[in-house]
Structures are given as structure tokens and as C-alpha cells.
Design goal:
Layout (H helix, E strand, L loop, with lengths): L3 H20 L5 H13 L3 E5 L5 E4 L1 H7 L3 H5 L3 H4 L2 H15 L5 E9 L5 E12 L5 E10 L1 H23 L3 E8 L5 E6 L2 H6 L3 H6 L2 H5 L6 H14 L3 E8 L5 E12 L5 E9 L1 H29 L2 H16 L3 E7 L5 E7 L1 H7 L7 E3 L8 H5 L3 E3 L21 E8 L2 E9 L7 H35 L3 E7 L6 E4 L10 H5 L5 H4 L2 H16 L4 E9 L5 E12 L5 E10 L1 H6 L1 H79 L6 H10 L2 H33 L7 E3 L1 H16 L3 E7 L5 E3 L1 H18 L4 E10 L3 E8 L6 H4 L19 H11 L3 E7 L3 E9 L17
Parallel strand pairs: 23-25
Antiparallel strand pairs: 1-2, 1-5, 3-4, 4-5, 6-7, 6-10, 8-9, 9-10, 11-12, 11-16, 12-13, 14-15, 15-16, 17-18, 17-21, 19-20, 20-21, 22-24, 25-26, 26-28, 27-28
């Protein structure tokens, strides 16, 4: 702001001099010269304004401010240059002077320069009055303050940006503090981040600097003061990590950094920033913890090879104690029945320092205390105030006092196998502690369980090697390579190392007459999803001797259900075979019979639907043929009778016409014919007879289609028209399709095919019914036949239904696999269809897209290869 006192002096002096100049013509020339010099060289604008608001006298500085030449400016009024928004205020102040209410005023206002630019000014106005008190003229001093206001605005903007920056620093706040002569810290500024971090307002900190010390860990205050003194002494940056109480009440970490500067007065001011680094400290602690965990997990396998089981578990408990800062630790195993538990190990520290109670190693789970809730609930139990925990049991004499406790289970395949407990940490246990205990406990159980399994396997191997039972493991890949065989295979003259190297392959050990059978059996049992199966077959020893073995095989699958290994236990049953040769012959005969029965059963499955439809067709044909026959005959007779009746009526009409009015009752007869509409009856009778005969023909066609579909009398291989079979099958299933499906036939020029036509009709029926089921509301089914190369034909059934999911495409031909709702399908249709097409040495393919539709393609050879068909006449008809 301008110096108002200076302006007042200038105004008074100028007014006085001007007044004297106007009253005295004989003024001192020297004084007038000094005033003129001052007026002309002044750095501020000066002017004399009349009561009519015109400029009367202006100095060069004012001309420069307004951008007008002196002559131009003297022709204008000050209102001409005043900004319109400021004019009213200026007029009010000017009028008050004219009315004598005041002799002058000071005002900030805006003027418009000659170049149109708006300038900010500070004006001082002083009135010079005549003897009668009226205003003679007004002296005005004008200062251009545009640059100063812009600087002040920029300063305010800068301060606002700084405040905004300070208030929006993530997890931080800015501060400025100084130290009083008495040695006390005083805060000059603090941004709003104080509230987010500490929970109190910045103003609270400015009023009470000691507030921050109250929120700081007292143990760190001496170090803080020492660092502060060093910063004062050397004017070096202050930086320190402090443990402070956060706004949420928990302890956290604050990184305080500031830079000191000494003022000319000698006072030191620190400009600094305080950042909440709790998350970073936690991350660093977690990183260290993870490194410690990794070291323990890597060390456990090595220790397990060096220590006994109990010592190994005590070592693991010691590591858990160190990581969780606990004072006691223990491990229990849970019995297989889930009812009992076994105390396996206390940590060494627990036994040496805290717990001297006598205890049983085995006892029922029902007698265990709160820690056993981890077994009962199959989840970790965390008790940070054991004294107040409900339903706790009393502790035996000599047992360590419990303050805090964590007990957690190791669960395997849904069963709790082991429990680890720790206790008496100085501070409450956290989720991180639970995670550390769980990681180490899981690894301990895995190692202990593996070692026990290895010991059991070693014992079992010793027992096996001492017996005549040979154990094999074959990999489920081409050739069934041996990946394990027990040492006692040497009884048969083979070397373990060579067998595992494929010398000889296991297939070469199997008697050639049995190899195909056991391969087929293994493939079938695997496809059926069996986990175990038994086989008996002959093996050749290294010397060529033939042995009968009984093989009990276990199938091992991966998580996806794919077979990985076959584990076989082979027992030499040669002596039993020799002693029971007759029984073996009978058994072989039964196997042959069972094989035939199995084949017959498969044949029955393949034709079960066809048989039902064949029986239905035969029944329908039997029941309908006779009524259709006599109705058709009666309609023929009735047609002849009607022709005779019409002939008689025509004769009567002719006689009536010839006799004219002499014919008795002619008028009454004509009236009756007209009333009964005899002409329509005569015409409609002929049409009714034609429609009735057409209906009987359609019924006969349906019966014939049933015969063509089932071919009850044609169960042998023969040449057949597949397009006729498609039409017959479509007529049979039309009732399921007609309400929602449009059937499009795109038949090509294909020859007759040598086949079992009734079975192929069953395939067509399955495909049509499935296509109908796939269409939920409206859609189309396209039947397409065409040549497929020179020796095959192709039949396609294409629907616009909902499609088949990609994960189901590879399983659609599996027996009993179906995606239809319960009661809608058995899952055998496509499986049987696949078998029928395979029996014809053809193939069936499927392609589908969800929401678009499905295409089934049946590709069949026109004629069988030599020797492949049971038929006799395989010559292609011309």
C-alpha cells in the first residue's frame, strides 16, 4: 500500500502553493520554479481537476500512466477514463467533497488507458476551497499500483499452491518451526496432514508444540533432542525416524526431515516434511520375516536328515518361537480316528525354563483344553487374553502360566493331522504370526509324513524282497516303461537296472498269446474309471520258462483324472495252475463264454432302441393293416354304391323331366332337393371319398415307413437307399420336431450303400432327436447327403440349436455322458451310434459352436472291403 502520510503532505503542499499562486500574482519566482520542477519531475501522477471533473493541469507522469498526450488529456474528464464498474463509487466520493462533507478522500480504483488496458491505481484527492467554502479545484495524486497488485496476487496464488500442496501430500505434512530463546520449539506452520497422521488439528500443534512430543515414544526423545542440537550446531539437515502414536490409536513410524536456516536476527527456522512410513517399515519387517521364513523352510529338509524325529520337531519349534517372539511351543499329532492326540514335542526352551508338569503323551481329544479347538474347528485359534478366555480348563501343576496362545491345525485331505501351539508373546499375536506358524508347521508335517512313509516303504520293500511277490510300477505311456521293480525280480532271472532301462520291455516278458488280452483289459478297465483290477497271465522268465502270475493293479491318476502310473503286485501262481488245470480249463471256457456274453450285451445295447421301435412298428402294422384293409375295401364298395345311387337319382330326374307336371309329387321332390342342397351333396360326396382314400393312403405310408425304419425282416447286410431311410426315420420322429423345427433336405446323388439299414436308421433317429432337443423354440434342421471322395458317402445332420460347450465335445460319444436334464436322456444314444458307424467301418464327426448350432457328419464306405462284411452279396448294384 502507498505511504498515505507522504501523499497527504504532498497534497497539502501542492494545494497551498497553487492557492498562493492563484491569489498572488507577485509570488516568489524561485518558489514557483521549485514547485514546477517538483510537479514536472514527480514519479507519481499529479493533476488539478475542476468541479466540472475536467483535467486542468496534468504532469508528465500522469500522461504516461494514462497513455495520452497532455493536450488530449486536458480535453477529457476523469469520468471518461474511470472503469465503469468503479464509476459510481468515485462519483459518490467526489460529490461528498463538493457538498463540503469532507475535504478529500483516498481510493483504489481502475482507469482505462488510451490503449484499452485496464490499470489499477491508488488516488489521493484534496479539495482547495475559496473563501466562501466552495470548492475552487481539487488536487489529485495518482499512483499506478497494477504491478504491485499483480505481484500480491501472484504471492497469494503461490501461497495457496503451497498450502494446497501441503494439504494434499500423501501420508505427509509440511511444517515450519523455530526455537525460542528459552530453548522451546515453536511451530509456525503445519499443513492439514497432521490431522490424518496424528488425529489432532494443525492449530492444536501451533498452540501447543509439546503435543507432538506427547504422541512420540518417550524412549526416542533423547535421541531426537541430540539430533536437534547437532542440526543447530552445524546447520545440517535434520532427519530421524520416530515411533509415534497414530490417529487410529496404533503405534506407527514417522520420518521427520527438515533443513535449518539462520535468520539475520540469529533465530533458526526449520522447514520440513513429516511422512508416515509405517507401511514402509511394515513392508521392510515383512521382507525380513519372509527372508527368515525362507531360510527356515530351506533348512528344515537338511535338518530332517541329521536329526531324529523328535529332535527335528524341537528344532522347528525353536524356529517358530524365534520368529513369533514366543516363550513356549509344542506339537501334537492327531490319531487317524480323529478322537485321540499324541504329544510329540515341546520346544527345548519350554522344558528348560517354563514347564515342568508331568503329562501323558496320548490322551483323548475330549480332555484337551482350549488349544484343541483348532482340531475341533479345523481352523487357527488365537487367544490374546488367556486369563479372560471362557471355557478354559485348569492347568496342571508345573505347567507354564499362559498369557497368550495360538493353536493351529495342519489339515490334509480334510483331516487334521497335526497341531502346533505357541504362547506367551509379550504383545498380542497377529495374522502374520499365524501365517508364519502355518507355513513352518505344514512343511514339518510334510517332511515327517514323508520320512514315515519312506520308513514304511523301506520295511515293505524288505518284506517284499523276502517274498515271492514282485512289485512293478509302469508309466502310463507308450510301451508301459518300467519305472520301479522290486529287487526280488531276480528270482525270474532279470536285472532291476536293465528292466528299468527297457531291457527287455515289459511287453516282451508277457507270453505272446496273452499280450493282446491284457492290453485290451487294461485299456477297458482304465476307460471304465476303475482304480483297481485283477489279471492273470503268463510271463516268460529270462531263461524262457513260462510262469503264471496273478497281477493286482492299482491305477494312479493326476488331479485332472488322467492316468499316470499302474502299480502292479505280481504273485507266482504257477503251482496252483498246474494243480488245478481242469478248473483252469473250465475257467477259460467261462471266459470265452463271458466274452461272448459281453459282446452280445454290447450288441444288445447297440440295438435296444431299435428293438423297441421294431416291436412298436410290428404291433402298429399288425393292428392297423386289417382295419385299413377293410376300411379301404368298404370305401371302394361304398364308392360303387354311391355311383349306383347317383345313377338311379339321375334316372328319376330324367323321368320327372320327361313327364313334366304329370310326375307325381314333382314339386315336393324338387323342394326337398333344394332344401337339402342336393347339388352340393353330390359334388362334396365325390371329394369326401377322395379325401378319405387319401387319408388311408397316408396311414399306409406311415405303416410302411415304420417297416422301412425298423426293417424287422431285414437284419442282414444288404444294399440300401440311405435317403429313403432318412425319410422314413424323419416320418417316425416328426411328432417331436414339427412344432419347432423346419426340416430342409439337401439330398445329393449318392448310390446305394451296403449296410445294416435298420441300425443306420437308429443312428439317424438319435441324431434327429438330439437336434430337436437342441432347438429350444424355433430353428431348422438340414439333412444333407453327398459323395465323400470316390468310395464313401456322407450324411450330415445340421441344427441351429444352442450348441455344445467346447469342454463337452470330446466326451459326447462316451457311454452315459449327457448334458440333458435328468429324465431327458440316458447318454447311450451317441455312444451306440458311434458303435454302429464303427461297425460299418465308417466314422462319425461333430462340430459345434455355442449359440450357433451343431453339425454331425456320418461318413460310410459304399461297399465293404474284402472279408470285412458278414454279407454274401457285396457286389455294387447297377
Amino acid at each position: 500500500m502507498p505511504d498515505f502520510g507522504l501523499f497527504a503532505v504532498l497534497v497539502v503542499v501542492a494545494a497551498g502553493m497553487l492557492w498562493r499562486m492563484s491569489r498572488r500574482k507577485s509570488c516568489n519566482a524561485e518558489a514557483e520554479m521549485r514547485f514546477r520542477i517538483y510537479f514536472e519531475r514527480a514519479m507519481v501522477g499529479m493533476a488539478v481537476v475542476g468541479v466540472d471533473r475536467h483535467w486542468q493541469v496534468v504532469n508528465p507522469a500522469l500522461c504516461n500512466i494514462f497513455g495520452y498526450a497532455q493536450d488530449a488529456l486536458l480535453k477529457m474528464t476523469w469520468t471518461d477514463l474511470t472503469h465503469p464498474d468503479d464509476l459510481q463509487v468515485s462519483e459518490l466520493a467526489f460529490e461528498r467533497v463538493l457538498r463540503g462533507e469532507t475535504n478529500g478522500y483516498e481510493l483504489e480504483k481502475r482507469y482505462i488507458r488510451a490503449d484499452g488496458k485496464v490499470i489499477d491505481t491508488f488516488i489521493t484527492v484534496q479539495a482547495v476551497r475559496r473563501d466562501d467554502g466552495k470548492v475552487d479545484y481539487l488536487l489529485i495524486i495518482i499512483e499506478d499500483i497494477t504491478a504491485r497488485l499483480a505481484a500480491e496476487k501472484a504471492l497469494r496464488s503461490s501461497e495457496e499452491r503451497l498450502r494446497h500442496l501441503g494439504d494434499n501430500l500423501p501420508e505427509s505434512y509440511l511444517y515450519q518451526c523455530t526455537k525460542t530463546p528459552e530453548g522451546d520449539v515453536r511451530f509456525i506452520y503445519a499443513s492439514s496432514g497432521v490431522r490424518l497422521i496424528h488425529g489432532f488439528e494443525p492449530g492444536d500443534l501451533l498452540n501447543d508444540p509439546g503435543l507432538l512430543f506427547q504422541y512420540t515414544d518417550p524412549a526416542m526423545l533423547p535421541e531426537w533432542r541430540a539430533a536437534e542440537q547437532e542440526s543447530i550446531r552445524t546447520l545440517s539437515d535434520f532427519s530421524m525416524e520416530l515411533r509415534v502414536r497414530r490417529a487410529d490409536g496404533d503405534w506407527g513410524w514417522l520420518l521427520v526431515r527438515s533443513r535449518p536456516r539462520r535468520l539475520p536476527s540469529g533465530e533458526i527456522i526449520w522447514d520440513g516434511v513429516a511422512s508416515d512410513i509405517t507401511a514402509r517399515r511394515k513392508a521392510a519387517v515383512m521382507l525380513d520375516l519372509q527372508a527368515r521364513r525362507a531360510e527356515v523352510l530351506l533348512e528344515l529338509p537338511r535338518r530332517s536328515n541329521q536329526l531324529g524325529e523328535r529332535e527335528f520337531m524341537q528344532y522347528a519349534l525353536q524356529q517358530i518361537e524365534e520368529i513369533t517372539a514366543s516363550q513356549i511351543a509344542f506339537m501334537h499329532f492327531v490319531n487317524d480316528d480323529g478322537e485321540g492326540i499324541e504329544l510329540v514335542a515341546w520346544s527345548s526352551q519350554t522344558l528348560e525354563k517354563y514347564c515342568t508338569a508331568a503329562f501323558d503323551n496320548h490322551y483323548p481329544l475330549s480332555q484337551a483344553g482350549l488349544w484343541a479347538d483348532a482340531v475341533r474347528q479345523k481352523m487357527p485359534v488365537v487367544i490374546n487374553d488367556y486369563a479372560s478366555a471362557p471355557n478354559k480348563h485348569g492347568l496342571p501343576a508345573g505347567h507354564s502360566r499362559l498369557v497368550r496362545l495360538v493353536s493351529l491345525p495342519v489339515v490334509e485331505n480334510g483331516r487334521v493331522r497335526m497341531v502346533t501351539g505357541v504362547g506367551n508373546k509379550d504383545v498380542p499375536y497377529t495374522e502374520t504370526d499365524v501365517e508364519s506358524i502355518q507355513l513352518i508347521s505344514n512343511e514339518v508335517w510334510r517332511i515327517v509324513d514323508q520320512r514315515r512313509a519312506e520308513r514304511a516303504l523301506k520295511i515293505a520293500t524288505q518284506v517284499v524282497n523276502a517274498s515271492h511277490v514282485v512289485c512293478f510300477r509302469w508309466q502310463a505311456s507308450a510301451g508301459w516303461p518300467v519305472v520301479f521293480v522290486s529287487d526280488n525280480v531276480t528270482h525270474w532271472g532279470y536285472s532291476v537296472e536293465k528292466l528299468m532301462a527297457g531291457q527287455p520291455a515289459f511287453a516282451d516278458m508277457v507270453h505272446p498269446d496273452d499280450l493282446t488280452r491284457i492290453v485290451d483289459d487294461v485299456s477297458r478297465y482304465t476307460a471304465e474309471g476303475r482304480d483297481f483290477f485283477d489279471q492273470e497271465y503268463r510271463l516268460l522268465t529270462a531263461s524262457g520258462e513260462v510262469l503264471w502270475v496273478a497281477d493286482r493293479t492299482s491305477v494312479h491318476r493326476d488331479a485332472a483324472g488322467n492316468v499316470e502310473f499302474y502299480d502292479g503286485v505280481l504273485s507266482d501262481v504257477t503251482s496252483h495252475k498246474r494243480q488245478e488245470k481242469e478248473l483252469a480249463d473250465n475257467l477259460a471256457a467261462q471266459r470265452v463264454l463271458n466274452k461272448r456274453l459281453e459282446e452280445a450285451h454290447n450288441q444288445l445295447l447297440q440295438s435296444e432302441k431299435m428293438a423297441s421301435i421294431g416291436q412298436l412298428a410290428a404291433g402298429i402294422a399288425h393292428e392297423l393293416n386289417n382295419p385299413i384293409g377293410f376300411v379301404h375295401s368298404n370305401l371302394g364298395t361304398l364308392e360303387c354304391y354311391l355311383r349306383d345311387v347317383m345313377a338311379i337319382i339321375d334316372a328319376y330326374d330324367k323321368a320327372a323331366h320327361d313327364l313334366g307336371d304329370d310326375f307325381p309329387d314333382r314339386a315336393r321332390i324338387e323342394s326337398l332337393k333344394e332344401t337339402c342342397d342336393f347339388a352340393f351333396i353330390r359334388e362334396d360326396t365325390v371329394q369326401l371319398m377322395a379325401e378319405s382314400k387319401d387319408g388311408l393312403a397316408r396311414v399306409r405310408k406311415i405303416v410302411q415307413d415304420l417297416k422301412n425304419f425298423s426293417h424287422v425282416s431285414e437284419q442282414e447286410w444288404q444294399w440300401a437307399d440311405l435317403q429313403q431311410g432318412l425319410d422314413s426315420t424323419l416320418n417316425i420322429v416328426w411328432n417331436e420336431l414339427k412344432y419347432k423345427c423346419k426340416v430342409i433336405k439337401e439330398y445329393g446323388d449318392i448310390p446305394l450303400v451296403y449296410c445294416l439299414v435298420s441300425q443306420l436308421n437308429q443312428v439317424f433317429m438319435n441324431l434327429l432327436v438330439n437336434a430337436g432337443h437342441a432347438i429350444e423354440k424355433d430353428g431348422s434342421i438340414t439333412l444333407r447327403t453327398l459323395m465323400y471322395g470316390e468310395h464313401e458317402v456322407c450324411i450330415e445332420v445340421v441344427d441351429t440349436g444352442k450348441g455344445i460347450a467346447p469342454e463337452h465335445l470330446s466326451r459326447v460319444f462316451e457311454p452315459f455322458f449327457t448334458t440333458k436334464p435328468v429324465g431327458k436322456g440316458t447318454g447311450l444314444g451317441l455312444s451306440l451310434s458311434y458303435g454302429i458307424v464303427d461297425r460299418h467301418h465308417g466314422r462319425i464327426e461333430v462340430a459345434s459352436e455355442l449359440g450357433v448350432g451343431t453339425t454331425f457328419r456320418v461318413i460310410l464306405p459304399i461297399a465293404p472291403k474284402n472279408g470285412e462284411s458278414a454279407g454274401t452279396n457285396t457286389e455294387i448294384p447297377t
